[in-house]
Structures are given as structure tokens and as C-alpha cells.
Write a structure and sequence with these properties.
Order of helices and strands: HHHHHEHEHHHHEHHEEEEHEH
Number of helices: 14
Radius of gyration: 20 Å
Shape: globular
Largest sheet: 8 strands, mixed
Distance between the termini: 57 Å
Length: 329
């Protein structure tokens, strides 16, 4: 079996065969000199997760592409569910992508003791899908960053609305609220959403200020909702949710789905909303262990001091007010 770094750079060489262009792109991705790039290609310097994600975006490949490159001997495609989104197929394939998660949530509701564990490098889509326009905005951000920087939010929203995905979004949000969960957050996760809204406004991606106002209104509602979840340890009037605060930055978000004592599925994020689902036993064990490790290094907001819980709870609204002032100055 190839070393991990060998697989990545072999795939990159196939995608970009021109060595000069490839070298220039790698230097840009890593932000280092040629010698440091060579150290990474030879495995002398270990690739960080955020660097791998940047490579995936720049050279347009996925974790599954890596697995396939290494051969069917240890890659069973039946264990993976993945919808590849491109500029050409996005509006055709995005309903199938949403359906993957809707079907998973509905399947879990039929189980005896379902649970979900989330590493929140940004606000989980399960929470965002409670809010129509924020959901459109998150899909827009993915499309904007990967495929088309000229399309405005309103034009994208018009196209996405034609697919009639609102009911699926609502189904996913309600199902998630009905399944107990554990979420590990840092204090940058919610700010990432607000920063994206601000940047879109700064760069003129909204045709009408009304669109911006609706997004900020929903962001305010989301902040209030999360604040209540932390305080009550419940998702509204539904299932329990335990919040943990991680003291540093969570760079690599993922979700482990389980029933009883057994994890049965993993969702690994590649870039923004794009992710794949897998039931690979080895990956499940590794990521479940990683979650336990991060949980052990985080503060349980149910058991921590009242002051610490209040501080975390209030940071959602504090961030919202700060960004609202910056945006509508």
C-alpha cells in the first residue's frame, strides 16, 4: 500500500501533468518555498488536514478519488455514498445530495437509540436548515467559491428554489432535533457564517439590501436558538444536545452517526458543504476515537462553571451584534 503522501501527489500529478504549473500551484497552496513543497511531496513534512483540503479544492479531487487510486484491494465503493458536484451538474445533482442526508435522518428516526456526534468547525447544516434563506446562502457559498464568482445570491437562490428542496431541508432539521446529539464547538464556528455574509456584502454579491437583511434576521434567530440550546441542553422542545467547548480552533469537521453502542456511519467534510458518507469500519473506529479525544480536551458546558456556560452561550448574540454593526454601519 502506498504512503498517504505518495497517493496524494500521484493523483495531483495525474490531474495536472505539467510539472511547472503543478509546482506553481503547490507553492501557492502551501504558501512556502519550493524546498518546503519538495519536503511535503517526499513525506518529510507531514501534511496538515487544512492543507489537504486546500489541495482538494485547487486540484478538484476527493477522499474517494484517493481511495480509488490505491486500488480495490482496500477500497470497497459499496461502503461509500458520494455525490460529485461540478459546475455543470450542480443544479441537477444537488437534490440527490440532499436526499442522501434526508434518507439517513429518516432512517435514524426508526432506530431504537440513535445518536449523532459532531465536530463543529462551522455551524452544522442540521441547525442552519431550520432557516430557509441561510440554507440557500450556505449552498450559494459553496457554488460561489468552487464554480462561479460572478453569480449573485439572488440569481442563485432563484435557481435553487426551482428544485423545491425546502421540504427536504425542513425534514432534515426536524429529524436532527429529534435525535440526541453531542456537539463540540469552538468560538470561531458561528463567526464563520457571519463573516461569509459580511464578505458577500462587501464584494457586492447581493443585488438588494432586503436579501442581506433577511439573512441577518435569520442569523439573529439562529444565534438565539443556539443560545437556548446551550442553556437548556435540548434542541427546542425536542431531544437532548450536549455542547462542549474546545479551547482552540477546530479545523476539520465531521459527523459520526450511531445507534445504541455502535457507530454505523461517518460524514466527512471535504470543502464547505461537500462531504461523503461511509460505513467503512476502519474509518468509523478512527473518527469515533478522534471524537472521544477531542471531547476529552473540551469543556462540558453542562458541568462547567455557570460563568463559563454563560460566556459561551452569550457569544452567539455578541458576535451577531458586532457583525450587524459592521455590516449596517
Amino acid at each position: 500500500m502506498k504512503e498517504f503522501h505518495e497517493s496524494i501527489f500521484e493523483l495531483i500529478a495525474k490531474i495536472e501533468p505539467n510539472p511547472i504549473v503543478r509546482s506553481e500551484k503547490l507553492i501557492a497552496v502551501f504558501g512556502v518555498g519550493k524546498r518546503s513543497v519538495i519536503n511535503r511531496t517526499k513525506g518529510h513534512t507531514v501534511l496538515r488536514v487544512d492543507e489537504i483540503q486546500k489541495l482538494m479544492v485547487t486540484f478538484n479531487f476527493s477522499w474517494i478519488d484517493l481511495a480509488k487510486l490505491n486500488g480495490e484491494a482496500y477500497f470497497d465503493s459499496s461502503l461509500y455514498e458520494y455525490v460529485r458536484l461540478t459546475k455543470e451538474n450542480f443544479f441537477h445533482e444537488i437534490p440527490r445530495y440532499v436526499r442522501l442526508y434526508r434518507d439517513l435522518m429518516e432512517e435514524m428516526l426508526k432506530m431504537d437509540n440513535p445518536w449523532i456526534k459532531i465536530i463543529c468547525s462551522d455551524v452544522p447544516m442540521f441547525h442552519i436548515m431550520k432557516f430557509e434563506h441561510l440554507t440557500y446562502f450556505k449552498f450559494y457559498m459553496y457554488y460561489h467559491h468552487k464554480f462561479d464568482k460572478t453569480l449573485t445570491f439572488e440569481k442563485f437562490r432563484e435557481r435553487l428554489k426551482l428544485l423545491c428542496l425546502d421540504l427536504s431541508f425542513e425534514t432534515i432539521a426536524i429529524a436532527y432535533a429529534s435525535i440526541k446529539s453531542v456537539e463540540i464547538w469552538d468560538r470561531k464556528a458561528f463567526e464563520e457564517l457571519l463573516l461569509l455574509i459580511k464578505e458577500c456584502n462587501d464584494y457586492g454579491k447581493f443585488e438588494h439590501v432586503a436579501s442581506l437583511r433577511v439573512l441577518m434576521e435569520e442569523a439573529n434567530l439562529l444565534a438565539r436558538y443556539l443560545q437556548k440550546c446551550v442553556k437548556s441542553a435540548h434542541k427546542g422542545d425536542r431531544e437532548k444536545v450536549n455542547f462542549y467547548e474546545y479551547g482552540s480552533i477546530l479545523r476539520d469537521g465531521f459527523v459520526v452517526y450511531g445507534n445504541g453502542q455502535r457507530p454505523f456511519k461517518l460524514s466527512q467534510k471535504e470543502f464547505m458543504l461537500q462531504s461523503f458518507l461511509t460505513s467503512d469500519a476502519v474509518l468509523l473506529a478512527d473518527f469515533d476515537d478522534s471524537f472521544a479525544t477531542l471531547k476529552g480536551r473540551s469543556d462540558d458546558l453542562i458541568k462547567t462553571s455557570v460563568r463559563s456556560q454563560r460566556s459561551f452561550r452569550k457569544h452567539f448574540r455578541w458576535l451577531f451584534k458586532m457583525y450587524k454593526k459592521c455590516i449596517f454601519h
